[in-house]
């Protein structure tokens, strides 16, 4: 198979190497392999995607949407589009502050796939990419706030009634000071799809409040979440005290902070579907013994 280095890809496509790298990083437009020496090598399919994206750009389409269309052209239709294409469609709509457009992308995906795929392959990777773009100055504060608001509203809409049922109870809370709760909501949805009942205490939850609620509910699991590892250090003693009475799991960057021993809590470091399946199995095994 013919392979191209980025200089040759640039020459054939008429797009600078810098812009090609940006399209690869932001939109997943290119799918290089690596040589034994570590060089990135591109295929004729990469070249065709770049050419299709240029055609869409020349037609006046915004970059994120042009990338989504180029990927979609390759996939053939909406239902078989790759996660990269769907994320690019979502990014294009949210970057334009197009809430109806973003909802349409999510509606189409939910019509043909599972909630686990929506969360694990599209929403959470998109949020990670958005955070990276914001740090690089490629997304504005307004875009980040708008996107988070739209997605939070949609996920909470999916969460309606997640406290009903007869399954095990999970209490979910962000650590004190933590306002970013989208990952925690996503985990709650993954638990709900496996039969759990969710009691959601939300962002910036004092640990004494979590402990008080847990005393009354006697949940099968208490999940504490933070996207900043710094949130854990001030509450280590309280988390350890809580773990004496309840099964406690810690997610987000707080799980990687290294200030708690593995024996004290469960660390949720994988994707939401896998971790939700894991804790479900642990609780079921505990109930059977």
Number of strands: 7
CATH superfamily of the largest domain: Methionine synthase domain
Low-confidence stretches: none
Distance between the termini: 56 Å
Give the helix tally.
12
Structural class by SSE content: alpha/beta
How would you describe this structure to a colleague?
By secondary structure, this protein is an alpha/beta fold. It folds into two domains: 6-157, Methionine synthase domain (Methyltransferase, Methionine Synthase (B12-binding Domains), Chain A, domain 1, Orthogonal Bundle); 161-288, Rossmann fold, CATH 3.40.50. 55% of the residues lie in helices and 10% in strands. The chain contains twelve helices and seven strands. The protein has helices spanning 6-13, 17-27, 44-58, 63-75, 83-95, 99-112, 115-135, 141-158, 182-192, 207-217, 236-243, 272-288; strands at 33-34, 40-41, 169-174, 197-202, 221-226, 248-252, 266-268. It has a five-stranded parallel sheet with strand order 4-3-5-6-7, with helices on both faces. Helix 7 runs antiparallel to helix 8, helix 8 packs parallel to helix 9 (182-192) and helix 9 (182-192) crosses helix 12 (272-288). The longest helix is centred in the middle third of the chain and has 21 residues, at 115-135. It is elongated, with a radius of gyration of 22 Å. It starts with 5 loop residues before the first helix and ends with a helix. The mean pLDDT is 88.
